[in-house]
Amino acid sequence: YQPLGLMRVLPHHGWNSTPAPGSYERGLDMAEGIAWVRYVIDNMTYQRECFASAPDDVLVYHFTADAQRAINLTVQLRRVVDVTTSVIGEARMRIQGRAGEHGVAFDAVLDVEVNGGTCVARGKSLCIENANSVTIRLACETDFRSLTPHEQVLQTLDAACGKSFDVMREAHIVSHRALFDRVSLELAHDAALDKLPTDERLKRVQEGAVDPGLSALHFHYGRYLLIGSSRPHADGNSLPANLQGIWNHQLEPAWQSDFHLNINLQMNYWPADVGNLSECHTVLFGWMKTLAREGERVAREQYGCAGWVAHHISDPWGFAWPGGPAGCGVWPTGGAWLCHHLWEHYQFTKDETFLSDDAWPLMRGACAFFLEYLVEVDGQLWCGPSVSPENRYRLPNGSEGKLCMAPAMDNQILRALFTNTLAAAEVLKINDVICEALREALPRIPENTIGPDGRLQEWTEPFEEPEPGHRHISHLWALHPATQISPDRTPELADACGKVLAKRLEGGGGHTGWSAVWLANMYARLLDGEAAHGMLLKLLRQSTLPNLFDTHPPFQIDGNFGGWAAVAEMLLQSRPGGLHLLPALPRDWSAGSVRGLRARGGMTVDMAWKDGRLVQASITSDHDGVFKVRVAGGAVSELKLAAHQPCVFEG
Ligand code: FUC
């Protein structure tokens, strides 16, 4: 995944020919989805706005100044390799190429519209002189989606050129707000801090300050990023957010800017449903169909098994083979983990058409693979060869390894897969032969084990761990993202999970952005708001760049998504039929309000709290029903809800 190119805009015919700009500011209006730059030269204020329009499928840049005929710009399109650029008319420029020998062909055309002034081509530049305002529209396409990228680009661009800047801007804002405005979050804080530039605000926190306002900003930024990277495209052919979301800027990015299925891709989509951006989740499911198609071939050719399988790395074409070193790549439960997202999405939406048409075939196919792949050992069904993602054990003879049989994570993922597939069959009233086989296999999947030191065990034996602070916490999958372990239903196992987390942290764990926020989500599930908040502070203090992008290092987007998922998890937890309001509220967020979070079972929840206690909540269910509600670890009460009728109660 590479950047297509770079649009260079040289104002005033080069930076050197004018005095340096003063009062320079740039910002992002997250609610409107518009980024802007403002600066002053010779007492004249220049402003640029830009946005990526989903309705018009173009990037739009708009340049204004506070005087007439003041805008002079040179515009160029560039790419270091594999590219041809050409001026294709007075005010249009094209960049085209192929990303290496085997990559996709790409094509982009930009169009310059000047209001007043002139635009002329000089060499490979477009030169704008004495304009009142300038609008640049840029359309791009690759042959991944279109057989005729150039024609598609021109069609998209011509359509966008038929609309004024104001019309496009308005349409963009309306469509962005339709998603962004669904949720709001306020965490009480010193309002004076809102005036600080974000990088300075972050620096304060990195130097030890606590700023709930920045935590809320980070949450909203996460929502903005999910909307920006995961909106379903009109042609139905969208890709999920990769390791860098869609913001990789390098020709040779870290980990090829691909999909990693042993935490990273899944983490990107944890917040989607609870954060009321359900449609963003569907982008993942569309791509899973490609993955499963490739995965059927891998199941057959690699293992001689039915169904489909995927391992720890993938790409837009659904690469599903074991890839990379054995200690990472020989891990067959990547696809099965993704199937958990299908069931979760159904739990939140109760969309039976989705369950039957999209989820069921994928879940069934994943089960079909494992029913043949699992190995019988003393009456149990073991998954392997496999790994507990990327972690090593040490054997009594001192040798170290990663390959293993039946790691706890695989057992947990498969238990969820089989249970959820059986539940889906029940909802859909499907009587499939596979159900009988799943019912027979389910009790034979090894249970969780608590080791001699009280920790939940990662492997079949309590092996020594050469890296006790390892960033993956795979064997706590049952606690989060799954809900197999919880303090109220399985207190002993929950306690054993707590001990794992403590040991990981003692060993220096949580040292990558995504690792810190996975711990935050787990602590939220253990109802430990202070520890969860501590992990979010760790994210901001150690793993966040000045623009609030997460850094592994290097830049990786998962920590942004897992971070805002953790905030949601601290404020609201749900199971079908049951809600827990403010389950893990930290002292530093003692007052605040949230609106629009979604709960499993199809509910929308608004809450306000003060002095660490719920003041008021409003729950609106999509369906009639009786639901259990618990507030901040207190007693459970029952609520009878009528569909679409908000039920408001005081804390
Ligand atoms: C997984 C992690 C690494 C990194 C990589 C992209 O393999 O173990 O820490 O996030 O994905």
Strand order of the largest sheet: 2-3-4-5-12-9-8-7
Form type:
globular
Strand content: 15-25%
What percent of residues adopt helix (DSSP H or I)? 25-40%
**Distinct helical segment count:** 15
Average pLDDT reading: 96
Radius of gyration: 26 Å
Q: What does this entry look like structurally?
A:
34% of the residues lie in helices and 25% in strands. It contains 15 helices and 27 strands. The protein is an alpha+beta fold and 651 residues long. The two termini are 49 Å apart. α9 (352-373) packs across α10 (408-428), α13 (513-525) runs antiparallel to α14 (529-542) and α13 (513-525) runs parallel beside α15 (558-571). The protein is globular and about 80 Å long. The strands form seven sheets. Strands 2-3-4-5-12-9-8-7 form an eight-stranded antiparallel sheet. Alpha-L-fucopyranose (FUC) is lined by residues 243, 255, 260, 262, 264, 328, 390, 471, 512, 514, 552, 556.
Summarize the structure.
The protein has 651 residues and is of the alpha+beta class. Helices cover 34% and strands 25% of the residues.
Please describe the structure with a list of short key phrases separated by commas or semicolons.
5-stranded antiparallel sheet, 8-stranded antiparallel sheet, 27 strands, binds alpha-L-fucopyranose, 15 helices, 25% strand, alpha+beta, 651 residues
